[in-house]
């Protein structure tokens, strides 16, 4: 029977007919859902309601089945077949996702944009049924800078600009200076960044007003915590990874014990310990700021995860690389710095990026110890009596901010991976 309907047997002998028919069925199915969603029109309304409800899905399945040819010679169709249409099951999932997205667009668009309010400065300005972006506008500075005094925000902006400018030093370094870039970014740059943030944002020097770290907050605090934890946990993880593979039993077992201990403890517990318990073990006349303790705690925690990622890269290298380096007369440190680590780190760029992304998304946990970064400020704002009922807008705003940060880091990681890719 199927032989009588040759268009249902997709192959290269009837490729033109099959592709045109398949694309037509897919288009009709998606178009019907689009028209029904946006204009309440149903192009297959002549069918019974129960049948017309599933007809777009059936048409789409048939269409995807028809265009599923091993090699059509048409670039875009081959890409679709490879990634989202390798089987009927995947085609069904693809259609369900497309239909759900189409169905979600009108209410989302209406709530977020068309019926939303952004004018005014009070809760009473939000009279529509959509989102109240007035809430975000009024609290925007607090979401960015926390409780930092408004007239002093220029200090945070200036500090960030200086830190970014110093971070671009490698882009303009001469050939003679490039050999010192590793030393600069590992040792000199963190010290300079710390001094800029401490003296400029904290103040108390050069006529600047002293502002305690308890007033720091918002997105700026998220950046500060993430920045220092990232630049400190990476070298720590590298040392621990080398230590775990060391031939010296004392070094190896200490590294293993450290990594397994920190990986087995929840981060929230580590933060509580750094904030509540750790000060009890310090001398009475010794003071360490809560923010510094939190940065140290997160660095120690994430360093253990980073170590395991780097260790995976070290173990993936063939033994010949070590033997080749030793045959050239290289010692342990010279061999690892110039031969082993560059190759190992290149292999685990995605894993390192994943660890860094997890670190950035873990920063909202510092709210439990009294530091209000952007998620912490949202938690404070939503409980304000004048702005009750707008938590959804705040969390959507925070989600967009974190998505932009994480996507930028992922994109940079992808570009870095492509830049140092040596496989052909």
Unreliable stretches, pLDDT < 50, 5 or more residues? Answer: 1-7
Question: Which overall shape is indicated by the principal axes computed on the Cα atoms?
Answer: globular
Strand content: under 5%
Evaluate the radius of gyration: 29 Å
Helix- and strand-based class? mainly alpha
Q: Level of helix content?
A: 55-70%
- Give, in order, the helices and strands: HHHHHHHHHHHHHHHEHH
Number of strands: 1
Report the total helices: 17
Query: Span from first to last CA?
Result: 48 Å
Mean pLDDT over all positions? 87
Largest sheet: none
Notes on the protein architecture:
With 424 residues, the chain is mainly α. It is built from 17 helices and one strand. Helix 9 crosses helix 16.
Please summarize what this structure is.
This protein is mostly helical. The chain is globular, with a radius of gyration of 29 Å.
């Amino acid at each position: 029977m199927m032989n009588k309907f040759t268009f249902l047997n997709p192959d290269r002998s009837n490729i033109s007919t099959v592709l045109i028919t398949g694309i037509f069925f897919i288009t009709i199915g998606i178009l019907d859902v689009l028209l029904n969603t946006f204009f309440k029109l149903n192009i297959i309304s002549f069918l019974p309601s129960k049948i017309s409800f599933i007809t777009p899905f059936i048409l789409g399945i048939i269409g995807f089945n028809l265009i599923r040819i091993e090699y059509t010679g048409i670039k875009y169709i081959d890409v679709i077949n490879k990634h989202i249409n390798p089987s009927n099951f995947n085609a069904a999932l693809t259609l369900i996702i497309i239909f759900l997205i189409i169905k979600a667009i009108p209410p989302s668009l209406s709530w977020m944009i068309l019926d939303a309010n952004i004018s005014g400065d009070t809760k009473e300005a939000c009279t529509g049924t959509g989102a109240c972006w007035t809430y975000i506008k009024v609290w925007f500075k607090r979401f960015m800078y926390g409780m930092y005094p408004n007239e002093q925000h220029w200090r945070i902006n200036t500090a960030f600009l200086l830190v970014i400018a110093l971070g671009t030093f490698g882009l303009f370094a001469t050939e003679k200076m490039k050999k010192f870039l590793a030393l600069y970014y590992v040792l000199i740059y963190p010290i300079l960044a710390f001094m800029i943030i401490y003296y400029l944002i904290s103040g108390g020097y050069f006529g600047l007003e002293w502002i305690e770290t308890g007033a720091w907050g918002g997105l700026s605090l998220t950046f500060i915590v993430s920045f220092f934890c990232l630049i400190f946990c990476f070298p720590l993880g590298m040392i621990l990874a080398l230590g775990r593979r060391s031939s010296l039993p004392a070094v190896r077992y200490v590294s293993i014990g450290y990594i397994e201990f920190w990986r087995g403890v929840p981060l929230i517990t580590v933060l509580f310990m750094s904030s509540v318990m750790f000060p009890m073990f310090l001398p009475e006349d010794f003071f360490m700021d809560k923010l510094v303790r939190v940065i140290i705690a997160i660095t120690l925690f994430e360093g253990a995860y980073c170590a395991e990622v780097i260790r995976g890269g070290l173990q993936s290298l063939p033994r010949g690389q070590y033997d080749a380096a030793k045959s050239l007369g290289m010692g342990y440190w010279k061999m690892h710095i110039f031969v082993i680590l560059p190759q190992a780190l290149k292999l685990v760029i995605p894993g390192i990026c994943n660890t860094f992304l997890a670190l950035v998304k873990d920063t909202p946990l510092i709210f439990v110890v009294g530091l209000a970064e952007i998620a912490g400020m949202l938690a404070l704002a939503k409980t304000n009596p004048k702005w009750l009922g707008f938590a959804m807008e705040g969390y959507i705003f925070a989600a967009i901010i974190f998505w932009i940060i994480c996507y930028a880091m992922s994109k940079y990681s992808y570009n870095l991976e492509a830049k140092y890719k040596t496989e052909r």
